Amino acid sequence: MICTIILVIGIGSGIYYFTEYRQSQMSFPKDVTLQTHTGADFAFSNLPKKIRLVEFMYTHCPDICPNTTFQMQQLRDRLVKDKVFGNKVEFLTISFDPARDTQEVLQNYAKTFEIDKNKGWFLVSGENSAVKKIADNFKFQYRDPGTGEFIHSSATYLLDEDNKVIEVFGMGEKNFKQKEVYKKIMKQI
Questions:
Q1: What whole-number distance in Å separates Cα of residue 189 and Cα of residue 187?
Q2: Other CB atoms closer than 10 Å to residue 188's CB: what's the count?
Q3: By C-alpha distance, which of 163, 183, 178, 149 is closest to 54?
Q4: Across the 189 residues of the chain, what is the mean pLDDT of every consecutive 10-residue run?
Q5: Contact 93, 121 (CB under 8 A)
Q6: Measured at the alpha carbon of residue 44, what is the angle toward residues 185 and 57, in degrees to the nearest 5?
Q7: SS3 category, 13
Q8: CA count, 13 A, side-chain hemisphere, 55
Q9: Between the CA of residue 189 and those of 122, 145, 156, what are the distances in Å?
Q10: Between 178-188 and 64-81, two packed helices, what is the crossing angle to 10 degrees?
Q11: C-alpha–C-alpha distance, residues 20 and 12, integer Å
């Protein structure tokens, strides 16, 4: 009986840690400033109160990164029709490959996915240490095994107006469930 109680408490604690507690610790470091694909500074210290969908990616990714960005593009278009994108909802796409994802490369990526079509979607990158600090705060892992094709986590993050993570979604065609993300965003508005 005691073993069963200990087991249930242990499992419950683990579930709480990986779902609620860990998410509540994820946030933007206030002392980091990155640069947008247009060259403007993007400071995390004074973000306006908006719901944010955050994606980590790199432009040379062969599959889930561009697929996720494409789905975010479609989601953005739907939120524009609902008249909430830009004024209540923003997207933030962070490149973790600043060596190759130069401003010019990011500008081409932005053009491909029509990121500048409406105000409210920021494509950013910066020094390795700054990007790593943000990724670490979100428990997003990535590394280059020497091939130039990163091994990375498969997560996007929905943040409330106070920049606290309220939901973690997958990436790619099968794991980024666009309809579910849309419903969660609209529920927060």
A1: 6
A2: 16
A3: 163
A4: 58 47 66 96 94 98 97 98 98 97 98 97 97 96 94 96 95 95 96
A5: yes
A6: 65
A7: helix
A8: 25
A9: 20, 41, 19
A10: 40
A11: 11
